[in-house]
Fold this protein.
Amino acid sequence: MLKYPQSILNLIDSFAELPGVGRKTAERYAFYVLDNMNQVDVEEFINNLEQVKNKVKHCKICGNLAEDELCPICQDITRDESTILVVENVRDVLSIEKIDSYNGLYHVLGGSISFSKGISAKDIFIDGLLERLKNENIKEIILATNATLEGETTARYIKELLNEYPNIKVSRIAYGLPVGGDLLYADQMTLLKALEGRIDYK
Amino acid sequence: MLKYPQSILNLIDSFAELPGVGRKTAERYAFYVLDNMNQVDVEEFINNLEQVKNKVKHCKICGNLAEDELCPICQDITRDESTILVVENVRDVLSIEKIDSYNGLYHVLGGSISFSKGISAKDIFIDGLLERLKNENIKEIILATNATLEGETTARYIKELLNEYPNIKVSRIAYGLPVGGDLLYADQMTLLKALEGRIDYK
């Protein structure tokens, strides 16, 4: 039976790797590239794929996305350097920045402790956080991991570690988030309320 | 306000160009590339994009996809060369091939006549079809353009042209209920066509 030319099948395979993309959708994307994108569009697409892998790094201090050694927030001298807000993922930073009411620093763990997935405290950027406590003059740490089992476990774990630093106030963003919810999909008002209502984490 | 690094924004833009992909989905794809694809995966993706634009051509005879001068079907000497099935798009060829019961040749118009989109008969591969009638020994032409206004207009237009060739049988694929279809959910036009196209029940 006839199949598409191999080069189209290959491109369909590539698109089908993307999350939530089945064969039909991948086919649709591949034919869009073939039929509707000109040479310049495709070169730009290719260039953008290359750039993302070559240029984007993680900030040496906080783990946020960066095109330099440090991310724009760690480079920004107007930010309040006495507060660190701890999140699981880089995309969470943008979610918090969007509500435009937090002016401290961040720490991006790059995941959460998960027994079921075999992710332990060593696999995420917790040691980087402890390092900062030695070097920086931190007054408050806001734990803003997700309101999931893993996020809560991670927050609890970090809280235990921070008992060594009695002068640092540790807070947890409030359960304005729906339990089981992901920071990424929260609306701005919910995020704002959660931030304002943060409570001492004991 | 903080934004993602420019290289990520660029890749999000590229993905957002694909049909049916909004910002959120494009973001998801871009972060998948960043977080879950390694250098080899991305190079393969890039290579596949390049290849599709460089390698895939249209068959000189029938307009189907080809990596050589001729498509696999026009190269296949076992196909019945006296019948041409006319479709709008290359993907339609695969749809027909999948049912595994047509053994003739194809002709891919690469679109349909559309007054609203300003696509005229000259813009699609009709002249290529007429050329084949002079050179090949064609006995039947099956018009399998879509069951849309444009597809019907195109089929009708080609039928008129073929009046010059009284020895060629011209047929149109049947309209009707889809197999497994419920009368209750069929639209009126489909029902009308199904009724008009009724056949002796033996």
